[in-house]
Amino acid sequence: MSSFPSRRAVLRGAAMIGTHAMMGRAGAAQLPNGDFSGDAELLARAYGALHPGLYRYNSPSQMGARFLALRQTLAARPTLSDAYLALARCTAAVRCGHSYPNFYNQSDAVQRGLFDRPDKLPFLFRWIGDRMIVTRDVSQPPLPPGTEVRAIEGVPAGRLLRGLMPYARADGHNDAKRRRILEVEAIDRFQAFDIYAPMLWPAMFARRAMRITATLPDGRSLRRDVALITLAQRQAAVPPIDAQPRDAILWSLDRKPGGVACLTMRSWSVYNGRWDWASWLEARLDEIVSDGTRTLIVDLRGNEGGLDCGNAILARLVDRPLTPLRMVARVRARRVPEDIRPHVDTWDKSFYDWGDRVRGPQRDGFFALAADADDAYGGLTIHPAGRRFRGTLIVLTDASNSSATFGFAQLVKASRLGLLIGEPTGGNRRGINGGAFLFLRLPASGIEADLPLIGYFPSGDQPDAGILPDICVEESAADIAAGFDRTMAVALRRARSLA
Q1: Chain-centroid distance, C-alpha 31
Q2: Which residues contact 28 (CB under 8 A, 6 or more apart)?
Q3: Which of 76-85, 122-131, 370-379, 381-390 has the highest mean pLDDT?
Q4: Cβ contact 17:110 at 8 Å
Q5: Chain-centre distance of CA 25, in angstroms?
Q6: How far is it, in rounded angstroms, from Cα 113 to Cα 17?
Q7: 60 CB contacts (<8 Å, ≥6 apart)?
Q8: What is the pLDDT of residues 176-187, one digit of tens each?
C-alpha cells in the first residue's frame, strides 16, 4: 500500500505564530493571550469527519474524552511546547502511525520556537528493551558504542522511555515501533526524542550540561557531565539521510562472497529529490540478473517508508500479476466539509473531492474506493516487468518498517516471494491509514497535524501486531560494542545454505 508522506515537507505557511510571541519560563514560547480551545474543536471536527482509522482502536467515547482533555489544555493559555505536547498525545492516542503534528510540516516559526534549541544529547542511541544503548557519540571524549546510559540527571533511562511512549506515533499496540521512533539515529533530521524530551522535562534539558550515569562495554561504571548541543552541531558530525543533497544517491548495492548482492535502502522518501531513483534501481536489478547473483538481500532496517519503491523489485520476481493482499480501501467522506476546507492543504487537489472514485456511503458510513482509484492510491497489484530474477530474495526488517516498507514486507511474506530476517515490523496487520493526506493547520496555535484519508482494512480478523519475520534476530549491546551486525550475519549464513 502506498504511503504518501507523513514526513513530506510541503506547502509551508498557512497559520503562523508571530516571532514576537512572548517567552515563558525555561525559554518556552508563550501563545498570545486568549482561549485556544478552538484548535481542539477543529481537530476533533476534522478527524471525526475524515480520519478513516479514528475508531479502529478507540470507541467514540474514548476519543471524545481525548479531545475534551485537549480542549481543556488549550483553553488554559499553554506555552507553545505544552500545546504541541497536548496535540501529540491526543493524535498518538488514535494509534495511527501517520497521525501526528508532523515535525517537517510545521511553519518556520514553530520550528524555530521548538526545534532549534541547544537541548540535544550529543550521542545517538538505540533502545534495547528499556535500555538506552549508545551507537555513536560526537562529544569528546566519546562514549564508546555499546555503552548503556542508565540514567540522565538521576532519572532512569527506562523511566524516560515510559514517559515518552504516550507521545510516539504507531499503529495499534505495536510498542516496538514506538520505541524505535524514540531512538536517535542518523536517519531523520527531526527525531521524536529530540523534540518531546525537552518539552516533557524542560528544567533538565534547559541546562548546558547533564550528568549521566553509564556502564561502559567493559563493565566499568561512569559518571560524566555531557554538554548539550544543537541539532546542527550533531548533524554536522553525523549527517542524517534526509538532509542529503537533493541529487544524492540514497541507496547502495554491495557484493558479498558466494553470489550475494546486498541492496541497502535506508529510506524510500524520494518525493522531492532530483535523483532518478527508478532508473538507478532498474539498472542495479539488471546487473544482478546478468551477473548470476544467487541471493539478493534487501536491507530495509531503519526505513519507515515513502513511495512504493519496492514494487520494482517484486516485479522482477513474478511471472503473472500478483494481488494476494487486496485490502479494502475506504474513506470517511466523499469530499472535505466546507468548514474544514480553509484549514487544510495538500499536494493533490483531488483529495478534496473523491467524486465518482468512491462508492457509498455504506451501512457503516464509509465510502469504498473504486478499483481503479484503489490502484492509484495504494493497490497492491504487482505486474511482471523487466528481466526476471530467479535467485533468492532475503529482506532485512525491523520495527521502523511501518508504512510502504510494512506493505512490502507483508507482501513478500504472504506471497512467499522471499524470506524475512530481523525484527518484527512496525505497522499493523489490522491495517494502516495513508495513501492520501491533508495537512491540518490549527489557526490559534499555528501547529500542523497530519490527517490521513484512506484506511486499509483486511478482509478478515488479524492480530494487533506487525509482520513477524521468518527468522527473528535480536540485537544486543555487545553486538553494538563489537560493531557486529548480527542480522546481516544470519542473512549471509542463510544465503550460503541456499546456494
Answers
A1: 28
A2: 79, 80, 81, 82, 202
A3: 122-131
A4: yes
A5: 31
A6: 9
A7: none
A8: 999 999 999 998
- Please choose, from the candidates 154, 53, 55, 30, the residue with its C-alpha nearest in 3D space to the C-alpha of residue 427: 53
Query: Using an 8 Å Cβ cutoff, are 18 and 109 in contact?
Result: yes
Return d(Cα 121, Cα 63) in angstroms, integer: 34
Selection from 330, 292, 340 nearest residue 435 by Cα: 330
Q: Tell me how many degrees the CA angle 467-333-439 measures, rounded to the nearest 5.
A: 70
DSSP E strand stretches across 220-290: 221-227, 251-256, 260-265
Distance CA 160, CA 73 (A): 23
Q: What is the Cα–Cα distance from 280 to 261, expressed in whole angstroms? A: 15
**E-strand stretches of 382-463:** 392-397, 419-422, 433-441, 448-457
Check whether 134 has a pLDDT greater than 50: yes
| 223 alpha carbon, distance to own chain's centre | 33
Helices (H), 79-211: 80-92, 108-114, 157-164, 175-181, 192-200, 202-205
User: Helices 80-92 and 37-50: crossing angle, nearest 10°?
Assistant: 20
Percent of the chain with pLDDT over 70: 90
Would you state the pLDDT for residue 283? Answer: 98
Q: Bridge-partner residues for 309, per DSSP?
A: none
CB 70 within 8 A of CB 87: yes
Residue type, 268: W
Cα atoms in the Cβ-side hemisphere of radius 13 Å centred on 215: 11
CA distance 398 to 487: 10
Per-residue pLDDT, 272: 80
Question: Which amino acid appears at position 44 of this protein?
Answer: A
Which residues have C-beta within 8 Å of that of residue 468, sequence separation ≥ 6? 424
Quick one: which of 100, 146, 171, 94 has its CA closest to 400?
A: 171
Most confident of 209-223, 326-340, 373-387: 209-223
CA–CA dist 30, 24 (Å, integer): 6
Residue 356: all three cell numbers together: 465518482
Looking at residue 275, its pLDDT comes to 95
Helices H / strands E in the chain, number of each: 15, 18
